[in-house]
Amino acid sequence: MTMFLFAGFGLTALNIVTLNKYVSVNEVLMIIGAFTMVVPTFTALFQHDAKELMTWHSIGQGGYMIVGIASSTTLGVAGGLFHVFNHMTYVSLILFSIAAVEYRTGTTNLNKLGGLIKKQPVAYLGMLFGIIGLAGIPPMNGFVSKWLIYRALILSGHPFIALAAFFATLGTILSVYKLIHNMFLGQLPERYNDIKEVGWGMKLPIIFMMAVVWLTGAFPGIVLSVVADIQKSLGLEAIAYSAHGVAAEMGQLNMLVINIVFMGGLFVSWLIYLAGGKRKHIGQYDNYAAGHFLDKSVPYNYNYNFYAGMDHIFEGAIHKPPVKRAEQALAAFVSGMSEYVRRIFTGNITTYAAYVVAAVVVILLVLGGGR
Amino acid sequence: MSTLSLVVWIIAYPVIIFCIGVLLGGYERKFSARVERRIGPSWIQPFYDVIKLMNKKTNVSHGYMHDVAILMLLGGTLLTLYFVPVPGFSYFSQFGDFLVISYLLLIPSLGMALGVGETANPNGSIGISRALQMLAGYEVPFILTFIGVAMKEQTTSMLDIINIQQAGGFMAWGLIAHPLLGVAALIALQGMLNEKPFEVIVAPHEIATGPMTEMGGKYLGIMFIQHLIALPLELTIYINLFLGGATNWLEYLVKLFVVWTALISVNMVFGRFRIDSWWKISLPLAALGVIGIMLNIA
Q: In terms of CB atoms within 10 Å, which of A137, A358, B164, B284 comes out highest?
């Protein structure tokens, strides 16, 4: 709906359209965006299927884009547009990894997987880079766009929308850790002992997307140049960017320095690590179990209902009658709306073909009219 | 700042902070011993602990992520350290503001979580599950207090916030100018540093010290080093935001010890809270922050 509004009125028009003296369309859109961030992210926390979890996050991250663009500040719009690109990169990376796991194990049920890091290290690394990007932690690209959005929200005086953005980020960290832990960490079930890494056809896309997620994080200028062009074409002030961050007049961010200092920190830690004695790798059954002996017959893992404490807190609230009624009303509203949408997306291939022809005709007319 | 003094600072800064961390850690041991009418260990006992652990002959790990995680833990903390300004050294503040610092602080947590996950011990996983739920709990009030301060001063740079407080004198200190935010952040800091009553992550009698269950030898040693660096680091963030930073190292040390004494005094008299009890504290704290922001805007 938001996108339709943008398409219909344009950004500058949105600034002029005000419902009354106190509430502007921007504010309404930002509140919709805030709910879009928080609610799906915390729904994702309690999913038991990897792909369903990621689907909820795709909705949640859409909220950041809406909030960024609706803030209609230079930084916010740049952040929202940059986030569209970032979301495309890290979500496809995570889905590649999930696909690699599903290809070998045949399941994406988070309660049945575990310990696959030993068997599929490349898929694990892809997932790791992807979740660092998704959670918006430096040094990956997701951090840059989120930084732009937070700064825009704080400086333009929207503390509660900014808080919703932070809160959703924390929810994201929790749920992506559940995702990587339940798939790749913890105890490896016996039935997956013969799993092998996927072939190069599936490994190469993962490695390529890892490089994209990291490089656009270290050198956000590559993408920000495009974002600045988009802003200019929309008639907005373009973001002042540098090759590795945001120019000094728009705030302090230099991702290259962050990367270099991080490498330095890792190097010093490695030296300290080497100063200690020689390490030995041990198997998963060689583990502390309070005096019990562990072997293949003993399941010794914690992944079902990973955030039990949080479940306990939210469960009571979710089942209260007002919440239930609101949820049912919303569901009824959405299914009613969907009836109209279904008339456009009929599922009939000839209808879609007619759309394509119509679009081509319109484009040709527009181009011809331009001359 | 000349290149030479910059290089000297870059090398000396983590070492100085580590030494301060050792003193703060030793002070905590001594303080709790005196409260319990014991003599207590020496003032630099944490240093002896680190030396002992690093010299252990048996160092077992559960795989490569376990090894890398320990590097991410310490490397991420060192990274964060450089972006936090202290008296005389604020070179890196031009490359990252408070928003960057608050997100860099997540790298050690994430690294540790991944490493503990690979140890395949449910005690560790439960500890991490609790740690992340706690994180969500204390970050909300902490970030809210920062949003309040940043909106009032119209900057997200930590250095600017320090300068504004120092220019305004004692009455411009965050704790005095916006007391609600200051108090909320102080309680969130208690959770950040894992002090009782918010110590459910480690819970030694219940889940075998949680994340540290499968850590031993140099792995535990590096975790100790990280803790001793993170301790002054997180206190410094609070001092910079709410106690006017510091103009010289003496003032800085005094402020560190005052805030730390307040936190460990609370630590001594409380038992351990459950996760949901912590949320019952955290949400009113966030509300306190909201009221503080409202007052600031008005």
A: A137
The number of CA neighbours under 13 Å toward the Cβ of A302 is 20
Please list the rounded mean pLDDT of every run of 10 residues in chain B (298 residues). Answer: 85 90 91 88 90 86 86 91 86 81 88 86 84 82 82 81 84 79 83 78 71 82 90 91 86 91 86 71 71 67
Residue of B120, B206, B116 lying closest to A299 (CA atoms): B120
Cβ within 8 Å of A, B 96-115: 96-97, 99-100, 103-104, 106-107, 110, 113-114
pLDDT of residue B298: 58
Q: Is A269 in contact with B74 (Cβ distance < 8 A)?
A: yes
Q: Does B75 touch chain A (CB under 8 A)?
A: yes
The ipTM estimated for the assembled molecules is: 0.86
Contact B136 A248 (CB under 8 A): no
- Cα–Cα distance measured from residue B265 to residue A239, given in angstroms and rounded to the nearest whole number: 48
Residue of A nearest to B135 (CA): A170
Looking at residue A8, its pLDDT comes to 45
Residue A280 belongs to what H/E stretch? strand A279-281
Which residue in B172, B179, B198 sits closest to B263, CA to CA? B198
Structure token digits, residue A320:
């209260």
**Paired tokens of B173:** 């200190």
Residue A368 has a pLDDT of 73
Structure tokens given for A100: 């690699």
H helical segments located in chain A: 2-9, 11-16, 25-44, 50-70, 74-105, 121-135, 141-155, 159-184, 200-218, 221-233, 255-275, 308-318, 321-344, 349-370
Q: Give the whole-angstrom CA distance, residue B59 versus residue B215.
A: 9
B292: contact with A, CB 8 A cutoff: no
Q: How far apart are CA A86 and CA B250, in angstroms?
A: 45
Tokens of B183: 């108090």
Best A185, A262, A285, A304 member to test B by mutation, with max B CBs in 10 Å, is A185
pLDDT for B258 = 92
Answering whether pTM is above 0.90, one says no
pLDDT value for A15 = 53
Look at strands A279-281 and B59-61 and give their pairing.
parallel
* Nearest chain A Cα distance for residue B38, angstroms: 30
Radius of gyration of chain B from its Cα atoms, rounded to whole angstroms: 19
- For the stretch A82-99, pLDDT in tens is 898 899 899 999 999 999
| Positions in chain A whose pLDDT score sits under 70 | 1-23, 248, 369-371
d(CA A137, CA A126): 15
Task: State residue B120 phi and psi, 5-degree precision.
Answer: 55, 40
The confidence score (pLDDT) of residue A366 equals 78
